[in-house]
Amino acid sequence: MDARKEGLPRNPHFSAQPRLGTLSPFFLSCAAYFLLWIPEDPPSWVGALVKGLPVLCLLGLLRVCPGGAHSSVLQGALVFSALGDVFLIWPQAFLRGVLAFTVAQLLYVWAFGFRPLQPGLLLPIALASLPFYGLLLLHLSPDLVLPLTAYALALSTMLWRGLARGGSAGWGALLFAISDTLLSWDAFIQPLAHARLLVMATYYAAQFLITLSSFQSPRPKTN
């Protein structure tokens, strides 16, 4: 039924799904990243640009095709994600990258909202994450404990709110957590085979799905 024909108001929290043409820059930039496979050592601005371009394309998508509620908040999260991508290219800027991604996670939490609350999700998230974070803390230098603990709390909160929202937000939040878990394990605990491929594939998929959530109608606001 066409709301305009029936004289009914449109849902302000829903926007039509973006077309393939508007998504193609993201897919092409992802293909460029994996095909070029620019070495991370030594770090370079070219490598940083190629790495951050897919997220910037998602930002452009939301600028061209504004989604529903909190689209502007998601745009802010993508900006800080792109900054984090750039900072993490250089080892000396690692903490800046952690800070940028912490802000991004908090913005995702804001975008997902707190309705429905679904506190029952907190227990399985805690049971899944606390053993890993405990193991990770054993391998961190003292200067990294506080910033990475803060980031872990922000990430876990984002995962909770994404799963509570459901749809592509839930899948995106889950893939983001998987990507960061793989990255942390490879960087601080034990090197993983094909770690970069696994981390970046799950990361780009997570950002894509979270961005798509802006075009989806939210769940009814019930607990």
Any overview of this molecule?
With 223 residues, the chain is an all-alpha fold. The chain has one domain. It is built from 9 helices and no strands. The protein has helices at residues 3-6, 20-36, 45-64, 71-87, 94-112, 122-137, 142-165, 167-189, 195-212. The protein is globular and about 45 Å long. Keywords: Cytoplasm, Endoplasmic reticulum, Hydrolase, Lipid metabolism, Membrane, Transmembrane, Transmembrane helix. Its EC number is 3.3.2.2. Belongs to the TMEM86 family.
Characterize this entry briefly:
The protein is mostly helical and 223 residues long.
Largest sheet: none
Task: Give the percentage of residues in beta strands.
Answer: under 5%
The count of β-strands is: 0
Mean pLDDT: 90
Shape category: globular
Percentage of residues assigned to helices = over 70%
**How large is the count of helical segments?**
9
Estimate nothing, just give the exact number of structural domains: 1
The radius of gyration over CA amounts to 18 Å
SSE order, one letter for each helix or strand:
HHHHHHHHH
